[in-house]
Batch of 2 targets.
Target 1
Amino acid sequence: MRQIKSIVIAGLLLTFPRFVGAQTTVKISEPEDEVIISKHIYGHFSEHLGRCIYDGLYVGQESAIPNQDGVRSDIIDALIDLKIPNLRWPGGCFADTYHWKDGVGPREDRPSMVNRWWGGVTEDNSFGTHDFLNLCETLGAEPYLAANVGSSSVQEFTEYVEYVLHKGGSPMAEWRKENGRENPWAVKYWGVGNEMWGCGGNMTAEHYANVYRQYATFMTDWTNSDGLFRIASGANVDDYHWTEVLMRDIPKSLIEGVALHSYSFVEWNEKGSSVDYSEEQYFSTMKTALMMDELIVNHTAIMDKYDPENKIALVVDEWGGWYEVMEGTNPGFLYQQNTMRDAMIAGTTLNIFNNHADRVKMANLAQTVNVLQAVVLTEGEKMLLTPTYHVMKMYNVHQDATLLPVSFDGPTYEFEGESLPAISASASKNKEGEVHVSLVNIDAHKSHTVSLSVEQFGAKNLTGTILSSKDLQDHNSFEAPETIQPKELKSIKIKKGVAEIELPPFSVLVLKAE
Ligand code: AHR
């Protein structure tokens, strides 16, 4: 092993020592059954929380910041570029306090409320359903409305469905028209509450299953298209009992998806800084991120038992890294920076989702702007794209492509007697026959060489995009917004049908074979 460099400052490894590690052969096979990686795995989530909507996405029409109907034009462009397939809104915990009627009609007549979960700030309802659904149209993203169950009523909920989806001639559709929208929006994805085991009402699984049945019964698909996609509020991490009860007690005719929430962190009660973290904290975070695989396997096993035909989707509608807020910011606003650690979380998690695409049909990164593992951060008129943004963009080549099984005997990333798989990978073939392989090396010190046989795809050309950086804690700041940028690898050498590619420590690489 060859040490390249090491600088240790005050207990924090700012530049970790680097070594050359093992060689790994990655095999990609033809699938036995066709599994499509749904583009909806690459979904996002924007809550009325901190500066995600207000002073984030939405600055208002009067703002000096260029905007389209009050939404920042630079963010719109960034999200279109990202190929964002769906957007979940308005929460989160906020969803079960949100009364949709307060957010439609003339802005000056809209009542205010207190955002009880997130900083106790006043919500003036200036960004409402019309703004959100119109934004989704602009983005070319499908809306995913998480509707209030915890503090609402069946009537309020069903009127919401009618307001959004009914063509005309119904009281709610006529009210929508009066409010300026003639045609219904196409909203297929509906969340029936959020975290009903916690902020959604502290319900037991058994109680919520009954409540869900009641609400779902009255949800009518007024569009007469291919039906609504109703998503039950799902388990917290490894609460397998929750999934078991929902799958057992909710008739299949009433449900299309079951959710799951799981975040990555150092320790829930000691989350640590989003920027100044030690290797120990990095290792712990990656441990929780990699747990996603086990969670999906175990929740899927329960779903397989009750739904062997695989009709109901597992929807991981909240995932991402969660750290302490940036110093001096409101603790209720969950504003954090985004470093190469987040790029590692994004790359490994998306590989896990891709590889489980037979059951995981949708997922939502928390959250889009200025909250948790954001893809976009803003400060006044400034905007930056985070390392997570770049990973999500590099991976969008997998959207709606056919999953190709990947196997390898991976090296491990060792830290103080513990080990994690260093490499993660997933692959797909798109409609044009191009094969994409995404590889992540989470090792903080060692680069690993991957040897990839491309002969079987008849590939003549191998190119790639890599995201790596000098230090694990590197990030894009408003002073230096382009510190971390993906780099193109123009032509990778193929020798006797095999390419040998070096994955530097904490790097993400997406290859294209054509
Ligand atoms: O994403 C932040 C919060 O995390 C959401 O509001 C809630 O659903 C979850 O606990």
Target 2
Amino acid sequence: MQIFFPKEEGQEIRATILPDVAKKFTDLGIEVVVESNLGSEVFVSDELYVESGATISSSRESSLSTADIVCRINKPDISEISKLKTNSIHISFLDPFNEKDLVNEFSKSNITAISMELVPRITRAQKMDALSSQANLAGYAAVIEASRTLSKSFPMMMTAAGTISPSRVFVIGVGVAGLQAIATAKRLGARVEAFDTRPVVEEQVKSLGAKFVKIDIGETEETEQGYAKELTEEQIKMQQEGMKKICSQSDVVITTAQVFGRPAPRIVTQEMVHSMKPGSVIVDMAVSTGGNVEGSMVDEYVFDNGVTIIGMSNLPGEVAKDASQVYGANLFNMIEEYWDSDSKELKFELSDEVLKGCVITHEGSVVNELVKGNM
Ligand code: NAD
């Protein structure tokens, strides 16, 4: 069994695995091949991978064509799919609801494609949950980026020259990223408030020492997996009305609101941006899925009326080494779960609850019910 880790392309800084996770694979008896310079952006040399038992490949094409499993972080270029070995497994983030051509190409090429964003949220799969492992680090990085951009200190300081007031941070959306953003802003000494449409998070917000903002928007629902359901237009308006004042008083607003399989809800209007003090900062963590903030742009710092709107699409990449560490661990945990150490093969049953959730294509067809319904 051979597993190949091609180097990520474009602006990606993260590496799919680090050497200590590569060693775990080789300890299982799996042959690990990494593309040369896989870890160069996180200062991990090829020699360190070799020490962990991996082989270095200088021919991406030939390694793609011989590997039984190919793992990456980002979705592949469609042109590389036909180069994969028939019946091999490809694991990465895939964005399968928007990437119909990619899904069809996987199916046509007889590849078993696994989408990391569709790993179900059940206890057994938590160790494989890359959305959470990356969102957690993104929440941290968003606060650090905001604090660097804000021309004010986060903590209160009492000095001989007078008292500096703490920064006020408002976090909208309290899932994995939002919780880490709250915890990080609190650690830095800010005064933190937060809102989510799921009232169950109130206790979690309070347990971190932040204030939960109550806004009456009527009935809200969440899915079995804990995802928020989409609000009606009227509910969004009620939410905006309820948040106006808090936004105008905040030095930093961090938005993380997402609705599974749908574009992100537009919550912060330009009017709300303009009501903020000049010098304030907004981080729109939902920028890649349509954005929570009017005017935010992917990978841009937008200046609007003195307010900086940050739209970084790869916040985990700001802490790339840790992000690589936990992503690789998620992959290892997934593969180990199905590894049979006697036969040295993967025991893949599509009836398995985790695989039923995240396998998109198999043996020439689209097998995932959610994705099939969207094709
Ligand atoms: P997410 O990324 O889908 O969304 C982020 C947050 O935005 C969510 O808390 C959501 O309720 C909120 N949101 C949606 N619309 C909003 C709006 N209009 N205004 C304000 N907030 C809005 O969520 P997530 O981080 O993936 O987590 C969702 C839940 O699932 C959390 O409670 C999390 O703890 C839970 N979870 C469970 C598991 C598991 O394995 N059991 C794994 C990961 C997450």
